[in-house]
What we know:
- The chain is an all-beta fold.
- It has one helix and eleven strands.
- The chain starts with a strand and ends in a 13-residue tail after the last strand.
Amino acid sequence: xxxxxxxxxxxxxxxxxxxxxxxxxxxxxxxxxxxxxxxxxxxxxxxxxxxxxxxxxxxxxxxxxxxxxxxxxxxxxxxxxxxxxxxxxxxxxxxxxxxxxxxxxxxxxxxxxxxxxxxxxxxxxxxxxxxxxxxxxxxxxxxxxxxxxxxxxxxxxxxxxxxxxxxxxxx
Length: 171
């Protein structure tokens, strides 16, 4: 049977992992009007995410190993919660990456399922990347000839993969 309403999830695609973020659900009938007072089931899965910006393929970026010690494969964890849409057909989920067991970059796969008045369920999924507020990329020449001095190229990027100019580093 074709659903009588749609569900949209709104929120950031990338966040720094040192602050909370929110995902807002908006449920509306195709014929107009909001899906108010209906049950919402939130499901959140999370797992490790590598830092490898596509625009910087020759650079190696700082990882969990460089700041957190030994790597632990945490696998994928999941949590579930319930809510109800308000009079505007919305519900909000807050996630705090600081509550994770490690400081490793991670993804959150968020699914919201709304059960309509006709007992039909409509679901929507959104993935959010929680990344360090900044990452340090290092590029070294493949072959060094004539000198023992290493001359690296260094870039510092924010969680949106934009260059952070003027960031002070000590090597």
